[in-house]
Design a protein that fits this description.
about 35% helix, Dienelactn_hydro, about 260 residues, Dienelactone hydrolase domain-containing protein, alpha/beta, Rossmann fold, single chain, about 20% strand, eight-stranded mixed β-sheet, AB_hydrolase_fold
Length: about 260
């Protein structure tokens, strides 16, 4: 497969669907390089910082609550709004409508924001480390959907000591060949983006390249399960919680070793 082809395809229409969860976010909005940054502080710090790269919903309640849950696991969590206040959900006809405004181009929106994120994530990470880190701080990152490539990019350049993603998008072969740290993959059986073929090829690459990784695969769930599942369904709730728990434990383990 040429590296121009995707192992995890770009976000599709189903990425714009999902459930909004109950709860009140407790973090604050600060700025790093003039980019809004969600900051969630742990009550019992483990001394580590976790960078959060959002899905196409950007800054929304579910994402804030997930960041707060990682803070409950001990991390100082820093989430980047690379959509600059323009997540996909603001283009819905109304809050309860799955359809977007008639003049909204999803493809143009993706191209615009991917270009911005590609150009700014690395600088944001470095600036956030300078602002919030200490000499002995260790770093991890997690990405959902749109955020998956930035996890691999940061692992490739060695700015973090561990990384994880759930139901990723926009991934090519080089993202897996170039990682220089342990990667946790939280995956859905039913995923238009990271399907069986793409996932298996990614694993084959990492095995051949002797990378450190773990694959967590949940049956009967779809793309978006780790952020926008139906929490009234006991199994979907369980899967979401296990994904977050697995990512937190993975990052804590590897940061304790480095």
């Amino acid at each position: 497969m040429a590296d121009t082809e995707y192992l995890a395809k770009p976000p599709g229409a189903c990425c714009r669907e999902g459930h909004i969860h109950e709860g009140e976010p407790r973090g604050s909005i600060e700025t790093v390089l003039d980019i809004k940054t969600y900051v969630s502080k742990p009550s019992k710090p483990n001394g580590h910082i976790l960078f959060y790269f959002p899905d196409i919903w950007g800054f929304f309640k579910n994402g804030f609550l997930v960041m707060d849950a990682f803070a409950d696991a001990g991390f100082l969590v820093l989430g980047m709004d690379y959509f600059m206040g323009d997540p996909v959900w603001v283009h819905r006809k109304d809050d309860d409508d799955k359809e977007t405004e008639p003049d909204f181009s999803y493809e143009a929106w993706k191209i615009k924001h991917q270009k911005f994120a590609d150009a700014h994530v690395t600088y944001w990470v470095d600036a956030a480390k300078a602002k919030y880190g200490q000499a002995d701080t260790k770093y991890a990152c997690v990405g959902y959907c749109f955020g998956g490539p930035y996890v691999c990019n940061e692992l490739a350049r060695g700015s973090v000591q561990a990384g994880a993603f759930a139901h990723p998008a926009f991934l090519k072969e080089h993202h897996f060949r170039n990682i220089n740290g342990p990667l946790f993959l939280s995956c859905a059986e039913i995923d238009h983006s990271f399907n069986d073929e793409g996932r298996r090829k990614a694993v084959d690459i990492m095995v051949a390249e002797k990378k450190t990784f773990q694959v967590q695969l949940f049956s009967k769930v779809i793309h978006g399960f780790a952020l926008r599942c139906n929490l009234n369904d006991p199994y979907e709730r369980y899967v979401k919680e296990q994904s977050l728990k697995g990512i937190a434990e993975w990052c804590n383990f590897w940061l304790s070793k480095r």
